[in-house]
Design brief:
Length: 77
């Protein structure tokens, strides 16, 4: 979400600066280049969080189920 806001802000600033935002050595030109790259990195972080969250939920469900299930006595022979 933060990277999307950064890209939006850079796009707005670029519109205000018009052609000056494309000049190679300005701060705005650097932001135009770098802001979209943060979206790529954020997507990878989101995928990692989803994967680790899924594992944690499975472990939690397994632990909760074992705590809630009644223990059945083992048959003795």
């Amino acid at each position: 979400m933060a990277s999307e806001t950064a890209v939006w802000a850079v796009e707005c600033a670029s519109r205000l600066a018009a052609s000056r935002s494309y000049v190679g050595m300005t701060e705005l030109a650097r932001l135009r280049r770098d802001a979209p790259q943060t979206q790529i990195g954020e997507g990878a972080n989101d995928a990692l969080l989803l994967a680790s969250g899924k594992t944690m939920l499975k472990e939690h469900a397994r632990a909760t189920t074992s705590l809630l299930s009644p223990r059945t006595p083992r048959p003795t022979s």
